[in-house]
Predict the 3D structure of the following.
Amino acid sequence: MKFDWKFYLGLVIGFLFLYLSLKGFRYAEFIEQIKSINWYLIVLSVIIYYLTYVSRVLRWRYLTASIKEDMSFRNLFSAISIGFGANNMLPFRLGELARAYALGKIENVSAGSVLATVVIERVFDGMAVIGLVVIILLGPTSEHFSKHEQALSTAGYSSLVFLIFIVGFLVLLEKKT
């Protein structure tokens, strides 16, 4: 068996950084915190987390129906999971490209067409966020909120202009094709 120095070097470096990250770690305090966790809330949050994925799959199934009618829930769920996993590792939300590519490969459809549905989905998500910002801006204010109201207002209106531009671009693109 050949000696693989890269493997052992990686192992040494890994253990070194594990040691450095756990140096000064208070294990007794950690155990006490674990014992005080409300496990019902943890289970409830995991259920809610997966229900958001289910709602995303159902929404995406509706958006992708024009590409292929019978895309399976499992394949859509897998592609969304791949995309969100990639978003955790890649910059600039490149996981959305991975999601479109994965569904294209799994369902044997055009990844470009799938990417178009992802863009539409993100535009709708952006409009929902803008709607929430508008609701916040029109709602009652507090002393704390008024300190940040100008920044929030500027960000909200800038995002609204950007989304109007994107929607206009998509409408023009649709009319061209």
